[in-house]
Amino acid sequence: MARINTLLATVDQWIIDTLQAAYFWLLDRTGMYLASLQLVILAYVNVVLFRDWSSWNGVIIFLMMFFGVINLLVLGHRYWLQGAGNSKAINSIASFMKGILWRHTINGFLFGGLIGEICTLDILQATSTVSVLVYGYLFLLTIRDREKKPFFERKEHGHLATDPT
Fold first, then answer.
1. Which residue from 65, 88, 120, 163 puts its CA 20 to 30 A from 149's CA?
2. What is the DSSP string of 106-151?
3. What is the pLDDT of residue 18?
């Protein structure tokens, strides 16, 4: 059991590190706020969830709209914090959320659902589940000030400027 927990913690940290590096790359080149990226993902997930309106009843639609409004308020607050330059508050929230244990349970259910969706070849729903996982992991990312870089870096002596050689 200890090996499984170690493996899960390693995979979890790898996902966080990969998303952190990708976000810093995006931030340095575009200046996109973390909350803006989360809003795009949230919009995609809602489009996929509501693609078949006939199977939804009024209570589920109300709950989805209710949680959607809560998500928008949370994202608006995060957007305001990052716009005000208050990275300390966002980073402290991210470190707090990394320590929450129920996060692993929710991710386990989502990964289990993802495996089922892949087995049934429901690719659109599988991409939605991956988007929900990424959305949740984006709350764990820290932010920093932007270091402006060109989107396409110039070649120097036949190599990209980012190549180590």
1. 88
2. HHHHHHHHHHHHHHTT-HHHHHHHHHHHHHHHHTT----------S
3. 94
Long-range contacts of 20-28 (CB under 8 A, 24+ apart): 20/141, 20/142, 23/138, 23/141, 24/144, 27/143, 27/144, 27/146, 28/146, 28/147, 28/148, 28/149
- Residue recorded with tokens 């070849």: 121
- Angle at CA 58, nearest 5°, toward 56 and 62? 105
Question: How would residue 57 be classed by pLDDT, with cut points 50, 70 and 90?
Answer: low
What is the phi/psi pair of residue 157, to 5°? 60, 40
One-character DSSP codes across 56-72: --HHHHHHHHHHHHHHH
pLDDT in tens, 101-149: 888 888 889 999 999 999 998 888 889 889 999 999 999 999 888 888 8
pLDDT at 164 over 80: no
For the chain, domain boundaries: 15-145
